[in-house]
Amino acid sequence: MKRITILSILFTFLVWSCKEKTTGAYTLTGKVTGLDSGFIYLHNIQDSEAEPDTAALVNGSFTFNGAIDEPRFVFLSLGDIVPHQPLGFFLQEGKIVVNASIDSLHKGTITGSATQDDFTKYQGQFSGLAEKQRALIEEYQEADMAGDMGKMMDVQMRFQELENESKTIIVDFVKANPSSYVSAFLLAQNFAMDATEEELRPLYEGLDDKVKNSFFGKETGQTLETLTKTGVGAVAPDFTLDDLDGNPVSLSSFKGKYTLVDFWASWCGPCRQENPTIVKAYHDYKAKGFDILGVSLDEKREAWLKAIEQDKLAWTQVSDLKGWRSDAAALYGIKAIPMNYLLDKDGKIIAKNLRGADLIAKLGEVLN
Q1: How far apart are CA 239 and CA 229, in angstroms?
Q2: Count of H helices and E strands in the chain?
Q3: 367 pLDDT exceeds 80?
């Protein structure tokens, strides 16, 4: 009897151990039509420091095996085999199948992932809006080349309307899908880039606990903490960075003026497109007590200096040349640029993320 009990316990332990080892296991198989050999790479954006997994392509087919603790957003790329856009999708435990073409890897189809099905549903709602946004970007670039400031500001206003529609789509999706990891992903990657605590908190609180505790759920929670420090009405967190000549400049030294803290970078197209509006605002209102502190997320000093000269940015510029690892960007929870904060004379935030005509209108309101 004793022998049977011991064997039973051992058997139970072995079964439990096997279950523990296979929890989260996935097999990702696929085929890239038009490509017989080479390698394909699996990138995990939740661990950006890790090297991508690599699989050989045999007659265009490939297989990845692994284990994950929750659905993760990943990318498949072909390295330098051909010019291409990577395919982004949600990987989760189970058997996942990818079918794509060498000519359009980013349009590949994914089956076997319920989380990806949720994401595809969201993308279907967003696709028409994305086309309109791309068209407006082209229209803006044409106006910029022609030097038509009025047209540029008009396009910016219409683009902002589309961004508001995009936010509505995300809000509706999150409310309807509180148990989907996609909801946390959307809040962390999109909505949290331009949100107030009042907007974001109820959406976050409405998520299921497992989603709140996911990678992107935790990121959204951290964003909420930052929003309490950088929201309208809060005193802007102080920081000190070096200017173009290597001299330390503190944000607090700008007290006494209405100040725009402008996060940007030379490599950021939308930032460069916004710069003509900011230049106009600076020259129109600097005599009335307005100033700007430009905070660059550049890594290359030469590119930073060249952009300042090309765009005729005449105000104070600072940077630690750490890119996205910038200390100031981390302090403010910056996840996308351009991003700016308008401060009153006491250093209190009175508006944020002002673009185009909205920036001009707000400055007119407080300085005229």
Answers
A1: 13
A2: 11, 15
A3: yes
